[in-house]
Amino acid sequence: MKRFSSGYIHSIETMGLVDGPNIRVVIFMQGCPLRCSFCHNPDTWKSISKLKMKANEVVDEIRKYRSYIEMGGGVTFSGGEPLLQSKFLLEMLKLCKKAGIHTCIDTSGTGYSKKYINEILKYTDLVILDIKAIEPKSYKKITKRTMDMFNYFIEKLNNTNTKVWIRQVIVPGINDNEEYIL
Description:
Blueprint: E1 6-16, E2 24-29, E3 52-54, H1 55-63, H2 66-70, E4 74-78, H3 86-98, E5 103-107, H4 114-122, E6 126-130, H5 136-143, H6 148-158, E7 163-167, H7 178-181
């Protein structure tokens, strides 16, 4: 009998319409290494939550919404930062791929274990990459972290055939000016 790893889940949304193509099951994972000044999920920052699940339990929950998947939807792992629980995420991605479920991670490209990143990308159909800032000083001001992990993730992502959607929150007074946009 296979032993499945466990991880912390913040919440599960069963009809996500903006987190990937078509209708999605969105798994909001707990924990984030960033402290973005405009975060809309600060309740996911802590690494531990009340909801601890095994990888197979999460995928069993996703399978309940098979009708979404059969209509071109799938699952999106979001957060917090899904890469923060790299081993757990990888196990869920593998189980989803085995079940024929389209996989997506909505990530800032941080918090991962280098040991797992290549394999995570191998089992990910789509990366929704959240750009926090494009230059180091602004990035640090917004996230309280350096761009090192983000840049490494970009390097790894560029060496794959994984599809990428880019997102960026536009915040008045921070990045809504003509200079930044250009």
